[in-house]
Amino acid sequence: MSVSTDAVPAPTLPPAPILSATATIAVPPPFVPEALQACVEAGTCWQQEIARFVEHRLAENMRSWQAVAGARDVASLVKVQQDWSVKAAADYAEAAQRMRALATTLSLTGTTPAVQQSAQLLG
Asked: Stretch 32-49: mean pLDDT, rounded?
């Protein structure tokens, strides 16, 4: 059984708008560059904090692996694992606290802590 396609009309697109020679490009309000700069600074601050944490945890993990390699008995191996667990939990809790404080600062003031500190030193 075949279906005839003659009964279905082809879709039509609306005509494209025609731009006149006098069309103007909207100029952003003067606060937009400052807002973009604040967003870039906030993103940079956020990335720096994440990079700091990753670098710290990688160094701690390396120290732990060296301690595992140097373990001579099961008791010392378990001690290394316990120390790593406690340190990792403390590091992640501290990182969460720092990220929360950073997010709060950015959302309440719109500036990074470095900018606020500079303003306090100048003011």
From this structure: 78
